[in-house]
């Protein structure tokens, strides 16, 4: 996803150039704390800050073939951990999960990695590095992007505006993605699978959850455009006048406009009923309601 700043600029601004030198060098001088080595793949664990979940198998296969033909050009980046149990991962992956998956696909046991010691990066810096690695990708789905924004807010202790400033995006742009996390899991999954687009999904945000799922089914079934979704929501939300009249006592001559207003007010109560009497000049409307007990 394009950013207002480059990855290098953001990391340099946030950590300082020395702290994030992934090559382990500055001005040609080796950084004693960082090394580049081949390490065992089965000793690498994934970062808890990884928000990317979708990796297309075809692209991983293509990358694996490229690595097979030309070797691994860019090492992955890992954090060395202090472990007391030999079954625990010795390293945490900070950048390069696609490369790691591709090397695993080739059946190799080891991979070249830039190794940074645990004390060199704080938890906040690890989270930032993981997020920036993902945000440079063009193929993040909207939910992965939204989760990355949410993770950054929580780990960096910043609000929406500061997050937008950090990424070089507008406040509304950031919030548009964060709001997608308010959608039901079924809608989020459809976004992850790219069965619906962001514009389609955003039309569902103001609706009740049951209604969201009904509209989602219609979108998937009929491949509705945003304009068609808006029309569908409007048609399903409005009660026809004939339906309104059926809800009330017909022994009156009150204007339909008055009955419609009364019905709209009555809809705020559970199992409401209208009892109407009168004529266009004078009338009476009684609303009765009952909250039924839910039996297990």
Walk me through what this model shows.
This protein has helices at 7-15, 57-70, 97-105, 123-135, 142-156, 160-167, 171-178, 185-192, 198-202, 209-222, 226-237, 241-246, 256-266, and strands at 25-26, 29-30, 35-40, 44-45, 76-80, 91-95, 110-117, 273-278, 283-288. It folds into three domains: 7-128, Conserved hypothetical protein from pyrococcus furiosus pfu- 392566-001, ParB domain, CATH 3.90.1530; 183-237, no CATH class; 241-288, no CATH class. 45% of the residues lie in helices and 14% in strands. It has 296 residues and is α/β, with parallel strands linked by helices.
Main traits of this protein?
single chain, disordered N terminus, Conserved hypothetical protein from pyrococcus furiosus pfu- 392566-001, ParB domain, two-stranded antiparallel ribbon, five-stranded mixed sheet, alpha/beta, 296 residues
- The CATH homology group name of the largest domain: Conserved hypothetical protein from pyrococcus furiosus pfu- 392566-001, ParB domain
> Count of DSSP E strands?
9
Fraction in helix: 40-55%
Binned strand content:
5-15%
- Return the CATH architecture of the largest domain: Alpha-Beta Complex
Unreliable runs: 1-7, 13-32, 240-249
Could you tell me the radius of gyration in angstroms?
28 Å
């Amino acid at each position: 996803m394009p950013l207002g700043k480059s990855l290098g600029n953001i990391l340099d601004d946030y950590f300082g150039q020395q702290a994030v030198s992934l090559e382990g060098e500055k001005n040609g001088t080796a950084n004693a704390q960082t090394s580049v080595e081949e390490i065992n793949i089965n000793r690498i664990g994934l970062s808890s800050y990884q928000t990317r979940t979708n990796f297309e198998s075809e692209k991983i296969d293509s990358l694996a073939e490229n690595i097979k033909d030309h070797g691994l050009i860019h090492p992955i980046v890992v954090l060395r951990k202090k472990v007391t149990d030999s079954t625990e991962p010795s390293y945490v992956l900070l950048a390069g999960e696609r490369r790691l998956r591709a090397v695993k696909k080739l059946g190799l046991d080891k991979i070249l990695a830039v190794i940074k010691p645990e004390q060199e990066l704080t938890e906040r810096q690890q989270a930032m590095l993981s997020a920036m690695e993902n945000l440079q990708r063009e193929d993040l789905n909207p939910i992965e992007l939204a989760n990355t924004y949410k993770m950054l807010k929580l780990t960096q202790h910043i609000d929406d505006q500061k997050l937008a400033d950090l990424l070089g995006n507008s406040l509304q742009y950031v919030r548009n993605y964060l709001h997608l996390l308010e959608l039901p899991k079924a809608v989020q999954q459809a976004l992850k699978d790219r069965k619906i687009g962001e514009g389609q999904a955003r039309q569902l945000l103001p609706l009740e959850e049951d209604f969201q799922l009904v509209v989602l089914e219609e979108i998937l079934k009929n491949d509705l455009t945003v304009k068609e979704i808006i029309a569908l929501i409007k048609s399903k939300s409005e009660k026809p006048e004939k339906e309104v009249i059926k809800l009330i006592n017909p022994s009156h001559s009150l204007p339909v406009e008055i009955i419609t207003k009364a019905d709209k007010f009555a809809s705020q109560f559970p199992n409401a009923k209208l009892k109407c009497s009168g004529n266009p000049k004078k009338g009476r409307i009684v609303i009765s309601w009952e909250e039924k007990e839910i039996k297990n």
